[in-house]
Each structure stands twice: as structure tokens, then as C-alpha cells.
Amino acid sequence: MNYRTLGKSGLHVSEVGLGAEHLQGLPAEQVFAVVDRAIERGINIIDVFMSEPQVRTDIGRAIAGRREQVILQGHIGAAWLDGQYRRTRDLAQCQRFFEDFCTRLGVETVDIGMLHYIDDEADFERVFHGDVLKYALSLREKGTIGALGMSSHNPIIARKAVETGLLDVLLFSINPAYDVMPGDAALDSLFDAESYRSPALAGIDPARALLYQTCAKNNVGITVMKSLAAGALLSDRTSPFGRALTPVQCIHYALTRPAVASVLVGCRTPDEVDAAVAYEESSAAERDYSAVLGTAPLFSMEGRCMYCNHCLPCPSQIDIAAVGRLLDMALLHEHGVPATAAEHYKALSAHAGDCIECRSCERNCPFHVPVVERMHRARELFGL
After folding, report:
1. pTM over 0.85
2. Could you say which DSSP state residue 109 is in?
3. pLDDT of residue 181
4. Considering the domain boundaries, does residue 300 fall inside one?
């Protein structure tokens, strides 16, 4: 495994890291197996944004006794209320769930404390001129967090945050599909076929390029999320380029952006960890993504769910990411719903048929996925 310095944090992180969001809902033994394999293969950085208590506890058990081998990226502003994830700016809730993070993971300090999911101007102003930032800075001053970071999907807001001089690290969504889009575009246009046909988008969007350059100039290290676009880039059918990229190509694309130190790949199994770490032994030819990006036709990714559950809370207690993942699994099969998908769907505590169409999920979703429409489709397919 190769290691890179994560900007002015000074941390030396594996260039392939683990994004833990897909571990939520898995049996504890599977969580242990994934974390074990990651550490065995040299991965030393893990992002844990999830506020769900059990997955935090299981990850804590998985790293017990080897804390010194793991760089933890934990989030300030991710809460678990009424049995669901919620993004919060309430100071008491931020404190409560950051302390819960430390308790459940069995740690006294967190290497990187992330201001969680800031994507628009109003939220930026609320956080950076309010008590949440003061709390985060106090944690850094006391040494409870080693470095201060922020997670975002918006290059304009992210650059504004970097230019404050307060951040050591930025967690940002980087992949080829996102990078050709204008920074001020609504995120739903990331999935609109016509958006990709403009001659002005022949290369990387200037706002995103400027963000990466600004991070490099300010020595703010970037850790990467969504490098595979929740697997959409790995299939001819769902890639906006009309041809699949490989995990190695996606990882290489992100690692060749300025200031990027680590690509955090979401893995659910040890084999998926191995597939990501295969980057380390790949050839230049295997890493080369130019043939796909340079010649492939483009088509729509509209409605593509990233399974991140940023759309929660749901008043009907629907696990929207789980429903979405099972729906997409079913839609990939031309001969009916796979039995395994149907079984897992039935076992969910709430189903698409419980949706009351309040659309709070659509207002919360950073990717503007038409959630209600997808709930209708899931109910049709699964009958619940």
C-alpha cells in the first residue's frame, strides 16, 4: 500500500481507504471481516459518517486493540433521532452524537473531525458563523480531534470553506461523471444526458478544477467519496459514458486530482476490499481511463440513488437507501425480481407502500433523486 500526506494535517493515509457507510445493517461478523481485511491489506483510514448506533458499536469492536493502526474520520452534525439518521445543526445534538461516536468506537480522540454535509450557502453561513464551528474548533484546540475537516458535494461551497483557512481536510465527491459538470449546476443535472453534450464541457469543470487547486494551494488534503458513483460507473447500463469503468480506473482518476490523498471506497465484503486494493498492483494500462472518457457516448443517469440516506429522516420510517438498493438490484434483472432481493425487501421494517409522499426526502437529497417515483416503482415490483 502506498501512503500520502493528508495536507497540513500531517497524517499519512493509505491512498485507498474505506468508506464505512455500506456496513450499516450488516451482521457484526461481516463488519468485522471487512474491517479486518482492510487493515490486513494496509488500509489505515476509515470514514464513519453514520450515526446508527449498532454500526458504530460494531466498527468499534472491529478496531479494538489496534487503534494505532486506524485513522478515523468522524462527523460532527450526524445524529440518530427517532430511529433514523438526521443531519443536525443543533449544538446539543452535535455534542451528544459526537460523544456517542467516541463512546461506541471506544476512542478518546478522533483523528479527523468532519463538519458534516454542507452544500448550500445558507447552511455554510449557519455553521461557519455559529456554535457548531466554535464547538469543532474547541475540540481541535483540546486535542479531542486532531484535524478539522468538512464534507461537501458542492465545489463552490467547498472552496469557500477552504478559503477560510480553518480546514485541514475536505471530504469531497469526485469521479469523472461529476467532474465535467458546472459547479453551480443543480445536482440533479449530474444525471441529465443533455447536460453532458455541451462543447463547453469537453474537460473538467473550472469550478471543480479551481477547488482542487485551491486545496493544493492551502495545503488542505482531500479524501474522496463517491468515486464509483455507488457502482453506477461500473456498468455499461448505468454509466453516463455508455461504457463501464473499472474500480481501478475510478480510483486512479480521483487520485490524479490535485490535493487528493485517499479515495475512500465503500465496501460490503472482503472481496470488495480486495478489488479496491488491487489498484496498488495495477499496471499503467489498467489505470488508464482515457479511452472510456474520450470516446464513449453519453446517456442519462437521471434518478440514480447513491444509497447514502442523506434523504432521511422519513416520517414513515422507511430505510430509503435499502429500498433503493433492492429496487436497483431488481431492475437489473430482466426475468423478474431475484428471490434474494424479494426476501430482503420483505424483511424491511417499512416498505415503499408506506410512503405518504411528503417529499421531505426529495428536499433533503443532495443528488435530487425522484424518491417518490422510485417508491411507486418499488411497490409495483415487490408488491408492498
Report:
1. no
2. -
3. 53
4. no
